[in-house]
Amino acid sequence: MDPFLGEIRLCAFSFAPRGWAFCNGALLPVRQNQALFALLGITYGGDGVNTFGLPDLRGRTAVSAGSSQLTGTNYTQGAQLGTETVTLTSAQVPSHSHLLQVSTSAGTSATIGAAVNIPATSSVTAPAVPEATYGDASSNLTAMSSRMCQLSGGNQPHANVQASLVLNYIIATQGIFPSRN
């Protein structure tokens, strides 16, 4: 069966057969590819006078043009979406809390550390008037260890690519000119 001009297929081999080209964003001359240009226009690049672009599906997943039934997002033909890596912000992390573990055992050290009992009164409940126990370096209060309230994470991007199998997308540069319904 002859392909439609502009039809895109996946192939498991490493070359584009005669009458096909890789979907790699290449610019083709309008003059030698007028029928294909009539279908694609400059949707995928080019100046529309001398050149036009083929779709570039390298490292991309194809998505159908139109509005999503789930979100209502409109996907315009030729638009490139997404990114291969992403760095999350604190607004994108699920809300969570951190526990403070305390003990009613007698304190063993006056220095705050990762797993040390700090001397306290006989009760660990809050007094009627809270005592100023910890402060910054300019006060005469005990400085809290920097290990107690450290930032975590490295603010580095992580991979945002779904599990994939790499194949080649090819587009028909010769074939039957499709008629509209």
Automatic annotation (TrEMBL):
Name of the protein in its database record: Phage tail protein
Protein species of origin: Undibacterium luofuense
Phage tail collar domain: residues covered: 6-61
InterPro entries in the cross-refs: Phage_tail_collar_dom, Phage_tail_collar_dom_sf
Domain of life: Bacteria
